[in-house]
Amino acid sequence: MKDLISNFAEHISDALNSIQSSNLKPAERPIKNVLITGLGGSGIGGTIVAELAAPTCSVPITVNKNYSIPGFVDENTLVIACSYSGNTEETLSATREALKKKAQVACITSGGELYQMAQSAGWNTLTMRGGNPPRSMFAFSFSYLSYMLSHYKLIDLDVIAGLENAVNLINGEEASVLIEAEQLASRLRGKTAIIYAISGSAGIAARWRQQLNENAKMLAWEAEIPEMNHNELVGWEGGSAQYAPVFLRHDNDFDRNQKRIEIIKNIIGEKTNHINEVWSKGNGPIEKTLYLVHFGDWVSYYLSEFNKVDIMDIKSIDLLKSELSKIPL
Prior knowledge:
Elements: H1 2-6, H2 8-21, E1 33-37, H3 40-53, E2 61-64, E3 77-83, H4 89-100, E4 104-109, H5 112-121, E5 124-127, H6 138-151, H7 159-188, E6 192-198, H8 202-214, E7 220-225, H9 232-235, E8 243-249, H10 255-268, E9 276-279, H11 285-307, H12 315-324
Parallel strand pairs: 1-2, 1-3, 3-4, 4-5, 6-7, 6-8, 8-9
Helix pairs in contact: 2-6, 2-7, 3-6, 3-8, 7-11, 8-11
């Protein structure tokens, strides 16, 4: 996993090469809404891209993490099915439902049944190398999803330039990221991490939590500002030094939300002195997003080392899938 995290910028470059050599077809019909369906390491890219696209996207984007699909899906829906293995049962089920509703389908995968369906039907498809943990292939799914939305002319964002700039940024900042990520991991060691982000970046916070779950074998949670101001903030009355908040921040976040964070820090600082911040770097939304994601991946790696756990092991998920395989779908 260490090598896979180290190769994050290389993965973006490889995705760029695949994008630039792809030959995607135009939309068959007008697109009135988008459904991105995928779970876990394959699905979090959709969550983050949907937030990133929201300010400029001309149609609504819904992220689906279920066997079924929303009732609005029809022939004017673009469904992007994301499954690294190509065999995720929830994603395959949702995709079949989308086909029944005559939706336009595209997919992102490394193979499996989803790839076979795509090849047979002639869907727009972007592929990546197989054989790795899905969560380690985030750079591919994020890059591909961003490009697909751009290809269908749904977002006003220079995806290619953003990805190229992100490669340069991450390569240039890697040495300092390694130091800062290890320092943050040391402060989170033995604590329950709570990842906070402002609306529009909640998906990045979810990615951090997921990486702490899978890589470091830690329970954690994430929450969104300002929503948490209306509920979770009161929960901090029962808080303690066991909890270590991490605020993920951008210098261009909405000013009033920036002020909210400063007030929140004062309030929860009465209960814990383990308050942390990570500021994004880069000039555009793609750069800022990928910087924070990569930073969080390294934090999860160092915590796996501190916790003396096998970063690759996902035996709980494997057990669940094994038991489910005994039950007819």
